[in-house]
Specification:
The chain is α+β, with helices and mostly antiparallel strands and about 70 residues long. It has three helices and three strands, in the order βααββα.
Length: about 70
């Protein structure tokens, strides 16, 4: 399946693009992340859309835990 990362997608499309089926979080988790402003989103009226690359970058920056360097 080829996903065009230049287009805006809905919540289910974002989760399908970012995660494999066996480790995919729920739409409820995604809604919590948008409510807490942990990931970027675009709101048009009552509709919410996501840019796949922007969300991927935000998750990498905000949610990645780096290993400590050995002393």
């Amino acid at each position: 399946m080829i996903i065009n990362t230049d287009t805006l997608v809905d919540a289910k499309g974002l989760l399908a693009a970012l995660f494999t089926e066996d480790c995919r979080p729920t739409v409820r988790w995604l809604r919590t992340q948008t409510k807490n402003r942990n990931i970027p989103f675009i709101k048009l009226g009552g509709l919410v859309f996501f840019n796949i690359e922007a969300v991927r970058d935000a998750l990498e920056k905000k949610k990645t835990i780096r290993a400590r360097r050995a002393p």
